[in-house]
Amino acid sequence: MSTTRRRLITGVPSVALATMVPGLLHAQTAAPAQRRFDPQPGPWRRFELTTTVELKGAKGPARVWVPLPSVDSDYQRSLENTWSGNAALRSASDAKYGAKMLVADIAEASAATPVVVTSVFETRSRAVDWSRKAVVQEDAETLRYWTQATDLMPTDGIVRDTAREVTKGARTDVEKVRLLYDWVARTTFREPKVRGCGVGDIKAMLETRNFGGKCGDINALFVGLSRAAGVPARDVYGLRLVPSAFGYRELGGNPASLKGAQHCRAEVFLKEHGWVAMDPADVGKVMRLETPEWIKDPTHPVAAPVYKALFGGWEGNWLAYNVAHDVALPGSSGPKLGFFMYPQSEHGGSRVDCLAPDDFKYTITARELTA
Question: What is the model's pTM?
Answer without folding.
Answer: 0.89
